[in-house]
Design a protein that fits this description.
alpha+beta; Aminopeptidase; five-stranded mixed β-sheet; 26% strand; globular
Length: 151
Amino acid sequence: MKIGYIEGNEELLDLLKPMWEKLNLIHKSRSLYFKDRYEKLIFAERKSILLKKAEAGMVRVDLAVEEGNTYVGYCIGSIVGDKAGDIDSLYVEPGYRNAGIGGCLVERMLRWMDGSGVLSKTVTVAVGNEEVFSFYSRYGFYSSANILMQR
C-alpha cells in the first residue's frame, strides 16, 4: 500500500465529504446524549463553519491518498484568533487504520501550526469517542476540561 498526501486549504473540503459523513455516523453511534445532534448535522453546515474559520484565519486540509486516487483519510486544521490552532477533524478509513496514516496526518498538521507560529493547540473529542485519547496523547494532547452542554 503506497500512500501519498495532498495539502491544501478549504478548496479541498468537498473531496472529504464521504469520509466526514462516515465520521459523523461514528459520533452518532457512540454519543450518549446527543445522537439527534449528529443525526441532524449535515456536511454543508460543517463546511460552512470551517469556511467561517478560514475567513477569520486559516484552514488547512490534508488528504491521504492511495495509488489510484482513492482518498483514505483526512485531517482538517485551523488557526484563528491569537494564534490558536485546532485539529478540527481527523478520519482514516477502517481498512487503513493502524498503518500510521492518522499519525502522519496529525504530524503534518502540527508542523503547519508550528510553522505558522501557533501559541496553543487543541483537539475536541466527542463524548463516546474517548478511545482516541491514547492516540492524541502521543502528540502531547491531554484532557484539560470537560464542557457540559444542555440537551
